[in-house]
Amino acid sequence: MNKKTGVKILGTGSYFPKKVLTNEDLEKIVNTTNEWITTRTGIKERHIAEKDEATSDLAYQASLEALKAANITAEQIDLILVATVTPDMSFPSTACVLQTKLGLTSAPAFDLSAACSGFIYGISIAKAFIESGVYKNILLVGAEALTKFTDWTDRNTCVLFGDGAGAMILSASEENDDVLSVFLGADGSYADLLSMPGGGSACPATAESVNEKKHFIRMKGKEVFKVAVLKMALAAGKALEMANKKIEDIKLFIPHQANMRIIEAVAEKMDVLMERVFVNIHKTGNISAATTITALDEAIKIGKLKAGDLVELVAFGGGFTWGAAVIRI
Ligand code: UT7
Questions:
Q1: Residue 61 C-alpha to ligand 1 middle, in angstroms?
Q2: Terminus-to-terminus CA distance in the chain, angstroms?
C-alpha cells in the first residue's frame, strides 16, 4: 500500500497596512478613552487600510512573503484559498483578484466565509485537498479590511477592529504530517449577535439600508463574549484530543485575538499559563480571519517557535463559527 500523503507547512507571511490608528486617535473621533479600550479589550492600536487599498492588496503582500519563506514561486501554486468576510466585492472572489495580482491565469481560486474562524476552516480544506491527492501546493490566506465596514460613530464596535493579512503555503509531503488535527463547529442560530446585515440578497444596498447603517459590522459584545470563551475552549480541547496530544505538548497556544479578557478566560479554562499563549492584540485589534495566521507568522519571525514545535490555533467568530487546529511548524 502507498504511504499516506501528509501536509508540510512550507512557509508563512503577513502584511499590515502602514497607517496606524491609536486609542488616543480614537478618543478624538468617538466618545471613548484609551483607558477603557486598554482595560476592556487589551487593544492599543490597529492598522488601517488606505482608501485605495483593498483586501486583495493586503493578501497579495502577505502571499509574496509566504512564497518567499516557502522558497517556491507563484507558478507552483495549484490552489488559492482566501478566508475573508471583507472581500474586494461580492464577485469575482478576492482569491481570483489575488490570482491575477500573483500573475497566474489557471490555478483554481475561491473565497471561504467563516468569519474569524475562516483561516482554521481553510486549513481543514487545504488538508483534505492535499491528503486526497487533488492539489499539491496550496496558498491559504486570511485577509481582512474590516475598518472599511466599521461604523466610526459606534464606540461599541469601532475600537475593536483592524486590517491585515496572513498567508501560509501548505504542500503535499510523504515525510511530514504538519496538520495533526482540525476541529470545526458552527451554530447559525446566533447569526444576529454578530453580523453585517446589508449588501447581500437578503438586504441589497438601497439608500434606506445605507441610512440604517446596515453595511457596517454589528455586534452584541457581551453575548458574543460568553459563547466565544465556551466554544474556543471546547474547540481547543477537541483538536488536542483528535491529535492525541495534551496541552503540555503544545509549545505555543495561539487564540483568536478579539479581546484580551477572552484570551485569558480561554487560557484559564485550558489550564495553560499565559507565558505559553501568544498575544499581539495590542498592536492589531481584531482582524477576523487574519488573526491566527498573522499571530503565528509573528511568533515564527521573533523566534518564539522553531522547526518541529507544536502549535494550537483556535478561533471563534460570526455565524457563529469556531475551530481549532494542532499543527507542527
Ligand atoms: O471576533 C469575533 C468575536 N468577537 C468577540 O469575541 C468580541 C466579544 N465581546 C467583547 O470583546 C466585549 O464584550 C466588548 C469589548 C465588545 C465590550 O466589553 P464589555 O465589558 O462586554 O462592555 P459592555 O458592552 O458591557 O459595556 C460596558 C460599558 C457600557 O456602559 P454602561 O451601559 O455600563 O454605562 C458601554 O456603553 O462600557 C461602555 N462602552 C464604552 N465606553 C467607552 C462600550 N464601548 C465603549 C468604549 N469606550 N469604546
A1: 33
A2: 28
The pLDDT, as a whole number, for residue 3 is 72
Concatenated DSSP letters for 131-194? HTTS-SEEEEEEEEEGGGG--TT-HHHHTTB-EEEEEEEEEEESS---EEEEEEEE-GGGGGGE
- Ligand 1 centroid – CA 256 distance (Å): 17
- Write the DSSP assignment of 30-42 as a string of letters: SS--HHHHHHHH-
Largest Cα–Cα separation, the chain:
66
Give the integer Cα–Cα distance in Å for 267 and 327: 18
Element (H, E) at 224: helix 221-243
Q: How does residue 240 score in pLDDT terms, banded at 50, 70 and 90?
A: very high
The whole-angstrom separation of Cα 262 and Cα 146 is 20
221 lines ligand 1 (CB under 6 A): yes
R_g (Cα) of the chain, nearest Å: 19
Q: Is the pLDDT of residue 32 over 90?
A: yes
d(CA 297, CA 315): 16
Q: Which residue, judged by its Cα, is nearest atom 39 of ligand 1?
A: 156
**Spacing, Cα 53 to ligand 1 middle (Å):** 29
The answer to whether the bond into 255 is cis (omega within 30° of 0) is no
Q: How many CA atoms lie within 13 A of 84 on its CB side?
A: 35
Output the average pLDDT for the chain: 97
Q: Whose CA is nearest to atom 16 of ligand 1?
A: 221
Pocket flag, ligand 1, residue 286 (CB < 6 Å): yes
Task: Tell me which residue has cell 446585515.
Answer: 197
Pairing verdict, β 79-83 and 45-47: unpaired
Q: Which of 117, 163, 156 is nearest to 256 (CA)?
A: 117
Instruction: Give the residue whose CA is nearest to atom 4 of ligand 1.
Output: 258
Question: Can you give the pTM of this predicted structure?
Answer: 0.97
Q: Residue 265 is placed in which grid cell? A: 478566560
| CA distances to 55, 76, 131 from 87, in Å | 6, 24, 28
Q: Is the CB of 317 under 6 A from ligand 1?
A: yes
